[in-house]
Amino acid sequence: MLFEEHILTLFKRNCQHTLTYWSVFFSFGLSIAFLGPTILDLKCRTGSTLQEITWVFFSQQFCLLVGTSVGGVFRKTLLSALATLFLSTFIISVVFAIIPFCYNVLLLAVAMAVSGLALGFIDTIANIQLVSIYQKDSAIFLQALHFFIGLGALLSPLIADPFISEHCLGTNSTENASVILHHFRLPPVIHDTSPHSVLVKEKPNVSYAFWIMALINLPVPIAVLVLMYREKLLPCCPNSTPRLLDKDELAMETQASGSKEMHEPVTEGHRNLFSCCMNGNLSRLPVTFFGIHILGGIVLFMSEGIMGVYTGFVYTYAVSPPMSLHAKMAAYLNCVFWAAITAGRLVSIPLSYRLRPVYLLIVNLAGVNVILLLLLVFYTNSVFLFVGTSLLGLFLSSVFPCLLAYTEDILNYTGCATSVLVATAQMGEMTMQVLVGSLIQAKGSYSFLVCGMLLGCLALIFLLFLVLCNHIHRKLTGTSKKAGMVEDPPPLTLPAPEKAGQKIIITQLKCDSR
Predict the structure, then answer these.
(1) What is the C-alpha to C-alpha distance for residues 375 and 385, in angstroms, rounded to an integer?
(2) Where are the bilayer-spanning segments (predicted)?
(3) What CATH number is attached to the domain comprising 420?
(4) Cα–Cα–Cα angle for 211, 216, 217, nearest 5°?
(5) Domain assignment present for 494
(6) Residue 497 lies in a domain
(7) Do the Cβ atoms of 118 and 71 come closer than 8 Å?
(8) SS3 for 198?
(9) Each residue's pLDDT tens digit, 122-156
(10) Are 401 and 348 in contact (CB under 8 A)?
(11) Number of domain units in the chain
(12) Could you read off the pLDDT of 301-334 as tens digits, one per residue?
């Protein structure tokens, strides 16, 4: 059997919750990946330069960071968690629908900021919910969760591709962008300046791509609403008795509850980033505890920065000199990248069950550095750009879920590591996209790969420091001691039968004397 029976039983019991969280992350991927292939069209529509349009990335990523930082507040009860997921996924559809009407870069930035806040809530709540459900078995389900990000992100550029304009490439002036903007707004017209009238055919507007994605995303909030109905969390649903467990689930529930009574203290659950930082027990924790959070956050800052930069600017890099690919051909790079990420996360599901996350992390980050180096060497080869893009997606695909499972396993699933890592990952995407966008504008497209190579090297170095810190942490705390944000449980006291033992001994002595 590919997976153990207890994992299948766990999934069977939490099937609807798990599938709902996976679908929510499909919505996350759909929303996070559309900016890359449509960035030049949006630049034309808003009459802005490339440097100005990168602030749209910043607004989305900054609000995404805010959402991930405070998202744990809405996770205190199942009702608040699911209600937040419902509103967040519905807001994403609304933002998709209104983006075509944002003819100003400021309006577009505000719309993307709202969607970023919704994405931040989704990122924190869905990750923490899965970790809290599956705990030590969460690595497999986290890989599947991030597979659905890749699936949504793969679909997004495929939808946008037929509607991408082949004009307005490499123009940075507001005047030229205004001309193209006028081209988008006007219907087809017939020019009668020549004896033979020519019909100027309008290319399908990119607005249709956003409206299609809004419709595709609508079943996701409906799925969350169905889960709320099943859990009797809607005001219109009367309270009813919960369903009975089958024998396998009942045995697992009994075993889990007994194990918690014997070994686990009562915790407050997974918290948000700020409550983790303000916990009163921080002074009693070893310095390696903080080192694990910091080093893990730095690794994700670098690796997610690479992913954000590559998805945001590989299209711009491909259509610019020296590569100068055709717009239609360059648009497929985002599809190839997200297809590789989706495939890599699918393959990582059984691999994470067979191999330790740290081994996968080292191999993946080493592969990222090798591919980026080759992309730098063959920077004029369009064929290798596609090959390297697919390989880079494969190696980057499982870094986030593997590192999340690795650090939570070190810290015995206290939940604070999840909040810290998700927040730092979004911080990496936010800052790197703005920085690299400015560098491309100032220094040229080649700086795109140089920055990626630098980030990859730093990520691998800090991962090795994280492994060393984990080794020291286990020596300081002991492998069986829980290194968390809670106090250690009081030792169990068993009644000592001294008096009974004394009576038995006295009775036995009397019998022997007789």
Answers:
(1) 7
(2) 21-40, 52-74, 81-99, 105-128, 140-160, 208-229, 287-310, 330-347, 359-379, 385-406, 418-440, 446-468
(3) 1.20.1250.20
(4) 95
(5) no
(6) no
(7) no
(8) strand
(9) 988 888 888 788 877 777 787 788 788 888 888 88
(10) yes
(11) 1
(12) 999 999 988 988 888 888 888 888 887 788 788 8
